[in-house]
Amino acid sequence: MKLRTEHPIVVHRRRDLEGASDRGLHASVQSGSFRRIVAGSYVSSEEWTALTPIDRHLARVLEVADRARAPLVLTHSAAAAVHGIDRVGSWPTRVDVRIPKTTGGRSSGATRRHALGFEGVELIEWRGHLVTSAAQTALDLAAASDFTAGVIALDQAQWSNRRGGALTDIGHVRDLIDKNWRRGFARVPRAVDFSTHLADSVRESEGRVLIARLGFPPPVLQREFRLPGGRTARTDYYFEKYDHAAEFDGTGKYFDPDILQGRTPRQALLEEKDRADALRRQVACLSRWRTPAHKDPAELYDILTADGLPSRLPRPRRRS
Protein backbone atom coordinates (compact mmCIF):
# COMPACT_ATOMS: atom_id res chain seq x y z
CA MET A 1 0.00 0.00 0.00
CA LYS A 2 1.68 3.20 -1.18
CA LEU A 3 0.58 6.34 0.63
CA ARG A 4 0.77 9.68 -1.12
CA THR A 5 3.50 11.77 0.47
CA GLU A 6 4.61 14.27 -2.18
CA HIS A 7 3.17 17.70 -2.81
CA PRO A 8 1.17 17.84 -6.05
CA ILE A 9 2.00 21.54 -6.43
CA VAL A 10 4.75 24.02 -5.56
CA VAL A 11 3.85 25.74 -2.30
CA HIS A 12 5.26 29.16 -1.42
CA ARG A 13 5.49 29.65 2.33
CA ARG A 14 5.68 33.08 3.90
CA ARG A 15 8.59 32.06 6.10
CA ASP A 16 10.61 31.03 3.01
CA LEU A 17 9.93 34.10 0.86
CA GLU A 18 12.79 36.50 1.43
CA GLY A 19 11.66 40.08 1.70
CA ALA A 20 8.02 39.22 1.04
CA SER A 21 5.84 41.45 3.15
CA ASP A 22 2.35 40.62 4.32
CA ARG A 23 1.15 43.55 2.20
CA GLY A 24 2.81 42.11 -0.91
CA LEU A 25 1.37 38.64 -0.34
CA HIS A 26 -2.04 40.13 0.30
CA ALA A 27 -1.79 42.06 -2.95
CA SER A 28 -0.88 38.89 -4.86
CA VAL A 29 -3.92 37.14 -3.43
CA GLN A 30 -6.15 40.13 -4.14
CA SER A 31 -4.93 40.29 -7.74
CA GLY A 32 -5.76 36.62 -8.19
CA SER A 33 -2.24 35.50 -9.09
CA PHE A 34 -1.79 33.62 -5.81
CA ARG A 35 -4.15 31.70 -3.57
CA ARG A 36 -3.79 31.01 0.13
CA ILE A 37 -4.45 27.34 0.93
CA VAL A 38 -3.74 27.58 4.67
CA ALA A 39 -2.39 30.40 6.78
CA GLY A 40 1.09 31.30 5.55
CA SER A 41 1.05 28.96 2.52
CA TYR A 42 0.36 30.16 -1.00
CA VAL A 43 0.16 28.60 -4.45
CA SER A 44 -0.11 29.88 -7.99
CA SER A 45 -3.79 30.29 -8.82
CA GLU A 46 -3.21 28.96 -12.32
CA GLU A 47 -1.52 25.81 -11.03
CA TRP A 48 -4.11 25.38 -8.29
CA THR A 49 -6.98 25.52 -10.78
CA ALA A 50 -5.29 22.83 -12.88
CA LEU A 51 -5.21 20.39 -9.95
CA THR A 52 -7.91 17.80 -9.38
CA PRO A 53 -10.04 18.40 -6.25
CA ILE A 54 -8.44 15.44 -4.45
CA ASP A 55 -4.94 16.83 -5.12
CA ARG A 56 -5.97 20.24 -3.82
CA HIS A 57 -7.07 18.65 -0.60
CA LEU A 58 -3.86 16.63 -0.40
CA ALA A 59 -1.90 19.88 -0.63
CA ARG A 60 -3.85 21.25 2.33
CA VAL A 61 -3.31 18.06 4.31
CA LEU A 62 0.45 18.17 3.71
CA GLU A 63 0.69 21.81 4.75
CA VAL A 64 -1.29 21.28 7.95
CA ALA A 65 0.69 18.14 8.80
CA ASP A 66 4.03 19.85 8.21
CA ARG A 67 3.06 22.75 10.49
CA ALA A 68 1.67 20.63 13.31
CA ARG A 69 3.49 20.92 16.63
CA ALA A 70 2.57 17.36 17.63
CA PRO A 71 1.78 14.20 15.66
CA LEU A 72 -1.68 14.13 14.09
CA VAL A 73 -4.00 11.23 13.35
CA LEU A 74 -5.47 11.92 9.94
CA THR A 75 -8.92 10.52 9.27
CA HIS A 76 -11.95 10.75 6.94
CA SER A 77 -11.36 13.13 4.01
CA ALA A 78 -7.75 13.85 4.95
CA ALA A 79 -6.97 10.13 5.00
CA ALA A 80 -8.89 9.66 1.75
CA ALA A 81 -6.66 12.22 0.01
CA VAL A 82 -3.55 10.46 1.31
CA HIS A 83 -4.77 7.08 0.04
CA GLY A 84 -6.21 8.36 -3.24
CA ILE A 85 -9.82 7.51 -2.38
CA ASP A 86 -11.74 9.94 -4.58
CA ARG A 87 -15.27 11.29 -4.31
CA VAL A 88 -17.99 13.11 -6.19
CA GLY A 89 -18.44 16.74 -5.22
CA SER A 90 -16.42 19.20 -3.20
CA TRP A 91 -13.73 18.45 -0.63
CA PRO A 92 -13.66 20.19 2.76
CA THR A 93 -11.47 23.21 3.35
CA ARG A 94 -10.38 21.87 6.75
CA VAL A 95 -8.27 18.79 7.49
CA ASP A 96 -9.92 15.94 9.39
CA VAL A 97 -8.04 14.70 12.46
CA ARG A 98 -9.04 11.98 14.92
CA ILE A 99 -8.81 12.65 18.66
CA PRO A 100 -9.62 10.67 21.84
CA LYS A 101 -13.29 10.47 22.82
CA THR A 102 -12.59 12.31 26.06
CA THR A 103 -10.62 15.17 24.50
CA GLY A 104 -12.33 18.52 24.43
CA GLY A 105 -11.65 21.49 22.21
CA ARG A 106 -13.20 22.78 19.04
CA SER A 107 -12.15 22.45 15.45
CA SER A 108 -9.75 25.19 14.40
CA GLY A 109 -9.61 27.11 11.14
CA ALA A 110 -7.29 24.47 9.66
CA THR A 111 -8.53 21.22 11.22
CA ARG A 112 -11.82 19.49 11.90
CA ARG A 113 -11.72 17.21 14.94
CA HIS A 114 -13.50 13.87 15.22
CA ALA A 115 -13.69 12.68 18.85
CA LEU A 116 -14.08 9.01 17.92
CA GLY A 117 -11.15 7.56 19.83
CA PHE A 118 -8.71 4.90 18.68
CA GLU A 119 -10.00 1.60 20.05
CA GLY A 120 -9.96 -1.01 17.30
CA VAL A 121 -8.93 1.62 14.75
CA GLU A 122 -6.38 0.61 12.12
CA LEU A 123 -3.60 3.21 11.78
CA ILE A 124 -0.52 3.55 9.55
CA GLU A 125 2.58 5.72 9.97
CA TRP A 126 2.81 8.63 7.53
CA ARG A 127 5.39 11.44 7.48
CA GLY A 128 5.80 11.44 11.27
CA HIS A 129 2.04 11.27 11.78
CA LEU A 130 -0.61 8.54 11.68
CA VAL A 131 -3.36 8.00 9.13
CA THR A 132 -6.28 5.60 9.16
CA SER A 133 -5.80 2.64 6.81
CA ALA A 134 -7.64 2.54 3.48
CA ALA A 135 -10.20 0.07 4.85
CA GLN A 136 -10.69 2.15 7.99
CA THR A 137 -10.97 5.34 5.94
CA ALA A 138 -13.63 3.87 3.64
CA LEU A 139 -15.52 2.57 6.67
CA ASP A 140 -15.39 5.96 8.44
CA LEU A 141 -16.55 7.78 5.31
CA ALA A 142 -19.41 5.33 4.79
CA ALA A 143 -20.53 5.86 8.39
CA ALA A 144 -20.39 9.65 8.06
CA SER A 145 -21.94 9.94 4.58
CA ASP A 146 -25.14 9.16 2.73
CA PHE A 147 -25.52 5.84 0.93
CA THR A 148 -24.16 7.04 -2.41
CA ALA A 149 -21.03 8.66 -0.96
CA GLY A 150 -20.46 5.60 1.21
CA VAL A 151 -20.64 3.26 -1.77
CA ILE A 152 -18.24 5.47 -3.73
CA ALA A 153 -15.69 5.42 -0.89
CA LEU A 154 -15.95 1.65 -0.50
CA ASP A 155 -15.73 1.10 -4.28
CA GLN A 156 -12.65 3.31 -4.47
CA ALA A 157 -10.90 1.49 -1.64
CA GLN A 158 -11.35 -1.95 -3.23
CA TRP A 159 -11.01 -0.88 -6.89
CA SER A 160 -9.14 -3.80 -8.45
CA ASN A 161 -8.12 -1.96 -11.63
CA ARG A 162 -6.35 0.81 -9.70
CA ARG A 163 -2.76 1.43 -10.71
CA GLY A 164 -0.77 -0.56 -8.16
CA GLY A 165 -3.76 -2.69 -7.20
CA ALA A 166 -6.65 -2.43 -4.77
CA LEU A 167 -6.08 -0.62 -1.48
CA THR A 168 -8.05 -3.21 0.47
CA ASP A 169 -10.73 -5.87 0.07
CA ILE A 170 -14.27 -6.03 1.35
CA GLY A 171 -13.46 -8.86 3.76
CA HIS A 172 -11.03 -6.57 5.57
CA VAL A 173 -13.68 -3.85 5.79
CA ARG A 174 -16.19 -6.30 7.25
CA ASP A 175 -13.66 -7.34 9.90
CA LEU A 176 -13.14 -3.71 10.88
CA ILE A 177 -16.88 -3.17 11.22
CA ASP A 178 -16.94 -5.80 13.95
CA LYS A 179 -13.90 -4.32 15.70
CA ASN A 180 -15.05 -0.70 15.37
CA TRP A 181 -18.80 -1.02 15.86
CA ARG A 182 -20.25 2.21 17.17
CA ARG A 183 -23.31 4.36 16.92
CA GLY A 184 -23.79 5.46 13.32
CA PHE A 185 -22.59 2.20 11.78
CA ALA A 186 -26.10 0.77 11.36
CA ARG A 187 -26.34 1.94 7.74
CA VAL A 188 -22.83 0.85 6.78
CA PRO A 189 -23.48 -2.86 6.07
CA ARG A 190 -25.96 -1.97 3.31
CA ALA A 191 -23.33 0.16 1.55
CA VAL A 192 -20.76 -2.60 2.06
CA ASP A 193 -23.07 -5.19 0.50
CA PHE A 194 -23.75 -2.92 -2.49
CA SER A 195 -20.09 -2.00 -3.06
CA THR A 196 -17.85 -3.67 -5.64
CA HIS A 197 -14.21 -3.90 -6.70
CA LEU A 198 -15.19 -3.44 -10.37
CA ALA A 199 -16.17 0.25 -10.49
CA ASP A 200 -13.53 2.11 -12.51
CA SER A 201 -14.57 5.64 -11.52
CA VAL A 202 -16.53 7.58 -8.94
CA ARG A 203 -19.14 8.48 -11.55
CA GLU A 204 -19.54 4.82 -12.43
CA SER A 205 -20.22 4.07 -8.76
CA GLU A 206 -22.66 6.96 -8.54
CA GLY A 207 -24.42 5.76 -11.69
CA ARG A 208 -24.80 2.24 -10.31
CA VAL A 209 -26.57 3.58 -7.22
CA LEU A 210 -28.88 5.69 -9.39
CA ILE A 211 -29.70 2.75 -11.66
CA ALA A 212 -30.81 0.76 -8.61
CA ARG A 213 -32.79 3.65 -7.13
CA LEU A 214 -34.60 4.21 -10.43
CA GLY A 215 -35.84 0.63 -10.44
CA PHE A 216 -33.73 -0.79 -13.26
CA PRO A 217 -32.38 -4.35 -13.07
CA PRO A 218 -28.88 -4.85 -11.63
CA PRO A 219 -26.27 -4.73 -14.39
CA VAL A 220 -23.21 -6.86 -15.04
CA LEU A 221 -20.15 -4.64 -14.57
CA GLN A 222 -17.16 -4.35 -16.91
CA ARG A 223 -18.56 -6.77 -19.51
CA GLU A 224 -15.94 -7.19 -22.25
CA PHE A 225 -16.80 -7.24 -25.97
CA ARG A 226 -14.45 -8.12 -28.80
CA LEU A 227 -14.51 -5.56 -31.60
CA PRO A 228 -13.28 -5.83 -35.20
CA GLY A 229 -9.51 -5.70 -35.62
CA GLY A 230 -8.86 -7.52 -32.34
CA ARG A 231 -9.85 -4.60 -30.16
CA THR A 232 -11.86 -5.06 -26.99
CA ALA A 233 -14.32 -2.78 -25.25
CA ARG A 234 -15.45 -3.00 -21.64
CA THR A 235 -18.81 -1.44 -20.82
CA ASP A 236 -19.61 0.13 -17.46
CA TYR A 237 -22.94 -1.68 -17.28
CA TYR A 238 -24.53 -4.53 -19.22
CA PHE A 239 -28.12 -5.71 -18.75
CA GLU A 240 -27.77 -9.24 -19.99
CA LYS A 241 -31.47 -10.14 -20.26
CA TYR A 242 -32.02 -7.21 -22.62
CA ASP A 243 -28.63 -7.27 -24.39
CA HIS A 244 -28.38 -3.62 -23.37
CA ALA A 245 -25.02 -1.96 -22.69
CA ALA A 246 -24.72 1.38 -20.91
CA GLU A 247 -21.89 3.80 -20.12
CA PHE A 248 -21.17 7.03 -18.32
CA ASP A 249 -19.40 9.19 -20.91
CA GLY A 250 -16.92 11.21 -18.88
CA THR A 251 -15.08 14.14 -20.44
CA GLY A 252 -11.73 13.26 -18.86
CA LYS A 253 -10.87 10.92 -21.72
CA TYR A 254 -10.85 13.93 -24.05
CA PHE A 255 -8.82 16.35 -21.91
CA ASP A 256 -6.78 14.48 -19.26
CA PRO A 257 -3.14 14.21 -20.49
CA ASP A 258 -2.68 10.91 -18.60
CA ILE A 259 -5.60 9.41 -20.50
CA LEU A 260 -4.82 11.05 -23.84
CA GLN A 261 -1.24 9.70 -23.82
CA GLY A 262 -0.07 12.03 -26.56
CA ARG A 263 -3.27 12.07 -28.60
CA THR A 264 -5.14 15.27 -29.33
CA PRO A 265 -8.68 15.73 -27.97
CA ARG A 266 -9.94 15.46 -31.56
CA GLN A 267 -8.21 12.13 -32.03
CA ALA A 268 -9.62 10.86 -28.74
CA LEU A 269 -13.11 11.97 -29.72
CA LEU A 270 -12.95 10.21 -33.09
CA GLU A 271 -11.56 7.02 -31.54
CA GLU A 272 -14.32 7.03 -28.95
CA LYS A 273 -16.95 7.52 -31.66
CA ASP A 274 -15.53 4.60 -33.65
CA ARG A 275 -15.51 2.45 -30.49
CA ALA A 276 -19.14 3.31 -29.71
CA ASP A 277 -20.23 2.59 -33.29
CA ALA A 278 -18.49 -0.78 -33.24
CA LEU A 279 -20.00 -1.61 -29.86
CA ARG A 280 -23.51 -0.75 -31.06
CA ARG A 281 -23.12 -3.44 -33.71
CA GLN A 282 -22.40 -5.98 -30.94
CA VAL A 283 -25.44 -5.34 -28.73
CA ALA A 284 -29.16 -4.71 -29.16
CA CYS A 285 -28.81 -1.28 -27.58
CA LEU A 286 -26.19 1.07 -26.17
CA SER A 287 -27.08 3.94 -23.83
CA ARG A 288 -24.64 6.70 -22.94
CA TRP A 289 -24.96 9.76 -20.73
CA ARG A 290 -22.96 12.52 -19.08
CA THR A 291 -22.88 14.22 -15.67
CA PRO A 292 -26.19 16.17 -15.99
CA ALA A 293 -28.05 12.84 -15.98
CA HIS A 294 -26.64 12.12 -12.51
CA LYS A 295 -27.68 15.52 -11.22
CA ASP A 296 -31.23 15.01 -12.48
CA PRO A 297 -32.14 11.30 -12.15
CA ALA A 298 -35.25 11.80 -14.29
CA GLU A 299 -32.92 12.47 -17.22
CA LEU A 300 -31.14 9.15 -16.70
CA TYR A 301 -34.51 7.42 -16.34
CA ASP A 302 -35.63 8.91 -19.67
CA ILE A 303 -32.42 7.90 -21.44
CA LEU A 304 -32.59 4.27 -20.34
CA THR A 305 -36.33 3.78 -20.83
CA ALA A 306 -36.26 5.50 -24.25
CA ASP A 307 -33.56 3.00 -25.23
CA GLY A 308 -35.83 0.13 -24.20
CA LEU A 309 -34.66 -0.78 -20.70
CA PRO A 310 -37.67 -1.40 -18.42
CA SER A 311 -37.96 -0.11 -14.85
CA ARG A 312 -40.17 -1.42 -12.06
CA LEU A 313 -40.66 2.13 -10.76
CA PRO A 314 -42.47 5.18 -12.17
CA ARG A 315 -40.52 8.07 -13.63
CA PRO A 316 -39.28 10.54 -10.99
CA ARG A 317 -40.05 14.22 -11.30
CA ARG A 318 -37.57 16.43 -13.09
CA ARG A 319 -35.58 18.74 -10.87
CA SER A 320 -36.45 22.37 -11.40
* Number of distinct helices: 14
Major beta sheet, specifics?
Answer: 4 strands, mixed
In spatial order, strands of the major sheet run 9-10-11-12
Radius of gyration: 22 Å
Mean pLDDT: 91
Protein structure class: alpha/beta
Low-confidence stretches: none
List keywords for this structure.
globular, single chain, 12 strands, 3-stranded antiparallel beta sheet, alpha/beta, 320 residues, 4-stranded mixed beta sheet
Notes on the structure:
This protein is 40% helix and 18% strand. The chain has 320 residues and is an alpha/beta fold. A hairpin with a 2-residue loop joins β7 (123-126) and β8 (129-132). The two termini are 44 Å apart.
In short:
With 320 residues, the chain is of the alpha/beta class. Helix content is 40%, strand content 18%.
Provide the fold topology.
Layout: E1 12-13, H1 22-31, E2 34-38, E3 41-44, H2 45-50, H3 53-67, E4 73-74, H4 76-83, E5 95-99, E6 111-115, E7 123-126, E8 129-132, H5 134-144, H6 147-157, H7 170-180, H8 188-194, H9 202-213, E9 220-226, E10 232-239, E11 244-248, H10 252-255, H11 257-260, H12 265-280, E12 285-289, H13 292-295, H14 297-306
Helix pairs in contact: 3-4, 4-5, 5-6, 5-7, 6-8, 6-9
